[in-house]
Amino acid sequence: MADSESPAEQPGQQPDNSGATTADTAPSDSGTTAPGTHMPAWLPRAMVLALALVGVFELANWAASRLIGIAVMMTVAFFVSLAMEPAVDVLAARGLNRGLAVTFVFVLVFACTAGFIATLGVLLVETVSNVVGELPRLLDELISWINHTFHKDLTLDQLRDRLFKDSDIINSYAGKAAGNVWGLSSTVLGGLAKFVTIALFSVYMTADGPKLRRALCSVLPPAKQGAVLHAWDLAIEKTGGYLYSRALLAVISSVAHWAFLALLGIPNALALGVWFGVVASFVPTIGTYIAGILPILVALTVRPIDAVWIIIFVVVYQWIQDYVLQPRITARTVDVNPAVALLSVIVGGALLGAVGALLAIPATATVQAFLGEYVKRYRVAEDPRIERAGTRKKDKKTPAAKP
């Protein structure tokens, strides 16, 4: 009967899982969209905002990729100015005008740098010419050693014939080198331009150091100005201390290697000593090994046995510098744990290349000193478990308990 039919069984009304009927969601005869099926009002604005954020990110990424080189140069110039400022302050405290003090310090630094580069150029030219001149003798000795050791019958003529037989390889390398001449020239000119830019900004930052600090503090509340100036002082102290301690180590190393090379009778002993002292002291971690290559090559052109003595002396001196000289010289300037220093050099090199490796240690020392003044430390009670030596002795002396 019609009266017994439930509302859910009437035609055109089929139940769904939500309890609503299809009639509730069916479009009306007027053609308007039923509630719940139109686009939310916030979605177009969200899409526009997302596109705008993506565009801003891409623009910032493009600008950063173009400006990263300038940022690195400004960072280097800032650290150079920090390193030069102690010397400028000393001269200014003695009555010299700050501009003249900056001029004197930077002229001295540029003169030393130019002298080192000139010395290096002379050493490289003479070393290459000596190696080329002694190459036939060295090859004869090498072939004689190979024949005697491995019971071969090689001759220099056979080696020369094989070299000219593979002249296609030599020609290809020569062609690549000729093609890269322009690239090398561009690299040299670009490096010179960067050097001049860093030098100019270093001079400006050092000369206008008080103005820069005053301008920075003028945009900070008084409560923050003291902390910023204290951090700036720490950066100057640690960076300048790193530079001057390394310069002192370079002088000691240069004198020691000059005396030893002169004792062996190596040509250009003074220039080689200066080369070794500067490179070994200012190039982190691997500077000693790079510096030792040139004296060893020179020794091979004179007496090959001298190269062995140079290697022994370099190893011994490096041990003395690491465990005797450096702890005493850098105790009050840059006291960084060797493991932390090595890690900072690796991280700095990975981020900024050679520049980052050079700046890593003074930057780490500055951060370490700054944190050391604000991180609270507690007194550690005496406990044999810290050193572990007392516990081991105690364990050895204590007899095992009987069951």
Descriptive notes:
This protein is an all-alpha fold. Helices cover 79% and strands 0% of the residues. It is built from 15 helices and no strands. Helix 2 (42-93) packs across helix 3, helix 8 (222-264) runs antiparallel to helix 11 and helix 9 packs antiparallel against helix 10 (287-302). It is extended and about 90 Å long. It starts with 21 loop residues before the first helix and ends in a 6-residue tail after the last helix.
Count the E strands.
Answer: 0
The structure class reads: mainly alpha
> Regions with pLDDT < 50 over 5+ consecutive residues?
1-9, 16-26
Whole-number mean pLDDT: 77
Helix content: over 70%
Number of separate helices: 15
Q: What's the shape?
A: extended
What multimeric state do the chains show?
single chain
Percent strand equals under 5%
Major pleated sheet: none
The span between the termini is 96 Å
Order of helices and strands: HHHHHHHHHHHHHHH
Determine Rg (CA atoms, Å): 36 Å
